[in-house]
Amino acid sequence: MVETQSLKYVLCLLCSVILNIIFVFKEGGEWNLSWSRIAAIEAEAVAAISCSGHGRAYLDGLVLDGNKEPVCECNTCYGGPDCSQFLPDCAADANGGDPLFLEPFWMQHAASSALVVAGWHRMSYKYSDNSFISEELEKLIRKVHSIVGNACTDKRYIVFGAGSTQLLNAAVHALSPDNSSSPARVVASIPFYPVYELQTDIFRSVNFNFQGDTSLWKNNSDAGTEIIEFVTSPNNPDGQLNKAVLHGSNVKTIHDHAYYWSHFTAIPAPADGDVMIFTLSKLTGHAGSRFGWAIVKDEAIYQRMSTYLALNTMGVSRDSQLRSLKLLKVVLAGGGRDIFEFGHETMKKRWEKLNKVISMSKRFSLQKLAPKYCTYFQKISGVSPAYGWLKCEKEEDKHCSAVLQAAANIIGREGSLFYAEDRYVRLSLIKSQDDFDLLLNKLNELVSGEEGPKNM
Amino acid sequence: MVETQSLKYVLCLLCSVILNIIFVFKEGGEWNLSWSRIAAIEAEAVAAISCSGHGRAYLDGLVLDGNKEPVCECNTCYGGPDCSQFLPDCAADANGGDPLFLEPFWMQHAASSALVVAGWHRMSYKYSDNSFISEELEKLIRKVHSIVGNACTDKRYIVFGAGSTQLLNAAVHALSPDNSSSPARVVASIPFYPVYELQTDIFRSVNFNFQGDTSLWKNNSDAGTEIIEFVTSPNNPDGQLNKAVLHGSNVKTIHDHAYYWSHFTAIPAPADGDVMIFTLSKLTGHAGSRFGWAIVKDEAIYQRMSTYLALNTMGVSRDSQLRSLKLLKVVLAGGGRDIFEFGHETMKKRWEKLNKVISMSKRFSLQKLAPKYCTYFQKISGVSPAYGWLKCEKEEDKHCSAVLQAAANIIGREGSLFYAEDRYVRLSLIKSQDDFDLLLNKLNELVSGEEGPKNM
What we know:
The structure is a homodimer.
Chain A: H1 2-28, H2 37-47, E1 55-56, E2 73-74, E3 78-79, E4 85-86, E5 92-93, H3 103-108, H4 110-113, E6 115-117, H5 135-148, E7 157-161, H6 163-175, E8 184-188, H7 195-202, E9 208-213, E10 227-232, E11 251-256, E12 275-279, E13 292-296, H8 299-313, H9 318-332, H10 337-359, E14 364-365, E15 372-374, E16 379-381, E17 387-392, H11 400-408, E18 410-411, E19 413-414, E20 424-428, H12 433-448
Parallel strand pairs in A: 5-18, 8-9, 8-10, 10-11, 11-12
Antiparallel strand pairs in A: 1-2, 3-4, 7-13, 12-13, 14-17, 15-16, 17-20, 19-20
Helix pairs in contact in A: 5-9, 6-7, 6-8, 10-12
């Protein structure tokens, strides 16, 4: 009898265990996973490849003959199959503007930022409203600006571009007079982002050409010629919140607000320019996705930009629009606190460390940036620029980047590239932690090697 | 005793069942799925939304207030929340070039074409080789050409663009003389793809301008001026395998091979032009991904194109490069048989049906295309063009698209858009099955309504 009982009991147990296991998996959802399963396993396997915290493996990384898995792509100065080897004689690369300081944020938010794309996703040229622009993404962009308070979007049009890069020329094109005898003069204030000139020049347009420094046109009385002024705020390289210099009926302004996010600056007030350009690259750190947008007041300018973007590339890849949508959903979760606090804290700490070192030096100095009240953080937020704009103070140090290279094996971007003196050099603070640490170490050695402390 | 035995037996069974279930899931891999799980469930849920086979829901589709799921986006002439309503008075839209005829292929290959993207995937501007181009993707592109045999890639350079669209002007830019007094003349043979002129014009470059029909320059003796000839093979709209018309030291040729795939034409031999342009849009059907590539013989031209692409958009979105990589892996599975047989069969059937209807008509005729030996299928393959180039034969039917619209509610693209007579109209055969069926029905009604059969 006892055993009959236990038999029944065990049979019950058997059923309940099976049901439980089935239930657990159904809850987890895997029970339903079908076509996405293999891709998910593949992606997680690649993500699991250890590159010693000094590199990463990508789904589309190089696969060496005989291997199945992609190779580790190591940070600067790290090598070996798993990026565990530190390369001692390697230079600290503070040259580029890769916003990898945000990469750890996305690794911490792996689940919410993961994206699964079906093979038949958005094959068409157009969205259902017959445009090249995802309505859902446009909605989220307006939301992000309203919670950050860094730009007015009410009653404005929004166009998408392949990063801010494509939008810069789309705006120059749209603001230039068509079929005019005199081309528009495109200008920017020194020091300025080199692409303004390089890009304006390469198109060799009848409608516009680059004319250099804004100040040369300050007292221009020739109202007959259109002028297009690039205003970069915060400015690349020096982080200043520039304002338009030129005014008048013949002056159009393109406000490049790539860096106007709480990571890099206090937000004193929402930007309100006629043409404002933003990019995902400096908001989420996804430079590779090539996604940017312009906020445009005037409908005719918006139409001309849209036509330009249609004939140049037929709009922005639907794949990068989908990716941007997913990333902005994470940005918006919790009112943006997570990413902006992470971004601002990281950049502030880096700036403080850089400042501490340079303040010990007689030979070098950094740009001065005053803390401002940030309407987003609702407090005076510490300075946190994307770049250090370093100056060599010694008379003989006319070529500052050469000095850094020779004396400390540091690669910066020379001032002349920004149409400033070579006495200046731009040091990137937005790259990976490895890059920043290396830069800081080499600067420390260099400065501590100076004869005598600053105030002796 | 018996019951003790059965008790033991049942306990064994219990263990083995549990182990089995665990094993199954471990095999399936779900056991390990972590950060990708939620995204996978979300994507499969959206894919499972039924739109009655006459539409689809997308991950980035519009979400109406109060709803959680995106709306169904219905095919032309279908409506209602689940696209089940047929809209009787709706026009058959044969206007656009959306390559949705391949969508069912990707739905059939859901598992192999699914893609999971990690939030931190490729945030950088550059790949590890410091370029804007994925080496793995370039490898696959060369493989696809070698198995299809439609282009020589040995000792050629490959550049990527946002669809062929961006590459057209990149090539014109690279082939134009810089700082020359006389701009290059850009020409194409009528009927030609309108973007050649519209795009060349919008940049208003000092270096080049559009000069219309190639034939006007056939006997040009002015070797002092550079000429850039667009050669489209197969041609859009008429599907002819065009060859270069102009030759000489002052002539450069851009070979637009967007349609040079077994879906649309026999492949007589590998294309061997100096500058050849291809696009994912007409190979896999993913027009929305905006991915194309150019195969370039000369290094200097390749360098000029690369510089142009860098300053225009800083290369192609890493997201669309990743997507293209995944799709080309599916294309290459089984030597491409799956997709090219599907594509060719679909297009051949559509052409046969269209021909059958039009052959009954006295009022309309179609372009003549001869079957050719296809080196890929290794047989004479049936004709399967992307477009019907319809002619109105009646003297009074001078505006053929207007005739189709008025008499049968069919929207085609008028001949004049291709710089041909409006007596011609382009009918798209590459759109969804719904679009094609609708077109065919309306043509059937129209032709059967003609007084008397053709040969009476």
